[in-house]
Amino acid sequence: MLQYKDNPPYSLFQGPDSKWGTKDKDGKVHNKPIYIQSTKPGKENFFHDEAGLEIVEFDENEGMELVAWWSEPWYEMAWIVADYPERFNHYIVNNINGLRKLGLDDQNIINQIAIKTDLSEKQKSLFDLFNLFLEMEDENTDDKKFDMIEPFILSHSMKSLNCNERMELIIPIIETKDLIEEEKSTLWYTLFKLNDYLSCQ
After folding, report:
1. pLDDT tens per residue, range 120-164
2. What DSSP state is assigned to residue 13?
3. How much is the pTM?
4. Handedness of CA 156, 159, 161, 166 (dihedral sign)
């Protein structure tokens, strides 16, 4: 939790949708509550807008200060880390447009897929990595738990594969008739987000 001295020039406040903004010591709003707080340990004073275009840092003396601006949202870079087949693009687009956040509910779906699918050893290992990643991504995962999970992800055997190799393990599963659309969507978007995360590590 961020801690500040009494009555600083600027302070954080949350809007009704839990996004953050700033007010001055007189209560006047200087930054509307449009920012999402970083979940990365040690980076809690960094925030980004919903589209991922603007990165700002909060300072109690200055308010929100621009750190970086991208002309393209986060997912523009995520698209290019693997040669994703166009026939599955709608799974990614629908999830992005729906502002879907991954977490433990999706972990349950991934586990149901594993139960009803004859997975190879490599696929089982990748599903294990999916479970770790989804637990880390869950909005209720606190900093301590995040710190515990991340080393397991970064040292996982599936991290040594490149994004395309991980994708190739999932394509045969997506193409089976055993999965319903919700399961395919969850599986493919989890892969997309995981590949994006690992490509930045």
Report:
1. 999 999 999 999 999 999 999 998 999 999 999 999 999 999 999
2. E
3. 0.68
4. positive
3-state SS string for 83-125: CCCHHHHHHHHHHHHCCCCCCHHHHHHHHHHHHHCCCCHHHHH
E strand or H helix at 65? strand 63-69
- 85 C-beta neighbours (distance < 10 Å), count: 12
Rounded CA-CA distance 88/72 in Å is 22
Chain centre to alpha carbon of residue 194:
8
Concatenating the DSSP letter of every residue in 25-41 gives: TTS-EEEEEEEEEP-ST
Instruction: Round to whole Å and give the CA distance between 171 and 187.
Output: 10
Contact 104, 138 (CB under 8 A): yes
| Token digits of residue 22 | 């700033």
- Amino acid identity of residue 34, one-letter, is I
Residue range 161-176, pLDDT digits in tens: 999 999 999 999 999 9
Closest CA to 44 of 197, 133, 146, 138: 146
Do the strands 63-69 and 46-49 form a parallel or antiparallel pair, or are they unpaired? unpaired
Backbone angles phi, psi at 2, to 5 degrees: -75, 140
